[in-house]
Write a structure and sequence with these properties.
With 383 residues, this protein is of the alpha/beta class. The protein is built from 17 helices and twelve strands. The strands form two sheets. Strands 1-2-11-10-9-12-4-3 form an eight-stranded mixed beta sheet, sandwiched between helices. Strand 1 and strand 2 form a beta hairpin. Helix 8 crosses helix 10 and helix 9 crosses helix 10. The radius of gyration is 19 Å and the shape is globular.
Length: 383
Amino acid sequence: MPDLMPMAGGAAFLANPALDRRRAYGAAEQAILSLAKAAQAHHAIAAWDGYRPTPMMSLANLALETGVAEVLYKHEAHRFALKSFKALGGAYAVERLVAARGSAAGLTVTCATDGNHGRAVAWGARRLGVEAVIYVHETVSEGRAAAIAGFGAEVRRVPGNYDDAVRTSAQAAAVNGWTIVSDTSWPGYDLIPRDVMQGYAVLALEAEGQGARPTHVFIQGGVGGLAAGVLSWYWESQGADRPVLVVVEPDKADCLLASAAAGRWTSVGGDLDTIMAGLACGEPSELAWTLLSPGADAFMAIPDALAAGTMRLLAGQGIAAGESGVAGLAGFRAVAADPAMRTLLGIDAASRVLCIGTEGATDPAIYREIVGRDAAEVEREAP
């Protein structure tokens, strides 16, 4: 088993031992995610009321401090009404489902969530007149559960962690004839997660249209769907010349890093208790892992303190970013401060770094507790 490399601040790093940059993005990979299907997803989503590409922010001060040419932060805090990127996945998958059926009549969708995915499914269901039942686990905040209910979904709280909620949702779907709209996959369930992940690839499509030409991408982990979606875009379009992609997870929910270390799909146990609630996942999506295992360059696990510090750093620049939203940027900051890591990843004065700010202040109370100010106040005081 390859050794994890400890870093200052409590982070851990693993260069992917299974990486094969010479491997082509072939038919098997394209059957999961493809440029053509990403363009199809973008065409559909761009037709929704209120669509616009989320802003691409240049963090010039941070680029100077970290000794790179550019740090770009794609800020998802105002994506539709959801405060996160998740509409690109869950809501798009609901639309695809209704289109395939030809009608929303009699359809009930369900999923498990740490907050943002359930909110997106509920929003997409309401938009199309579909019933939704969303399962949240015991540590999902009341603020996030209430936000899901605010879009008309029935919210059911269950004991255990995110993976327990996934199983409960699947059991309820089987009993009641509901349709699961999940951002993770498992044996026998993988078609709808392809639509979810394909929607996430729109982020890379938008970023390219906004002029981003990254040499490095630091991207959130979770079950791996977002990372796989973004990786798929760059891998198919650029092949071996694609950006270096580093997957960043909470150290209390590092199932992707653990899988890379083990050389196979692996789950992690425990209560997965991290402030990065949207990434509190103990089991990777099998589809996502199929792409990340040979295609991601490295995996990182970071402690909550690095995420909280990055939230406060961005607040000082007028950017209200949520706990999960800053994980990729927090990972980059940790790497940039470590000379050995910089050398390993080829980070230098010419590097252009892209991070996806996947959420804004999705729970205002938690945001205020960490940052010390309300999100609206932070944004009003933007320099």
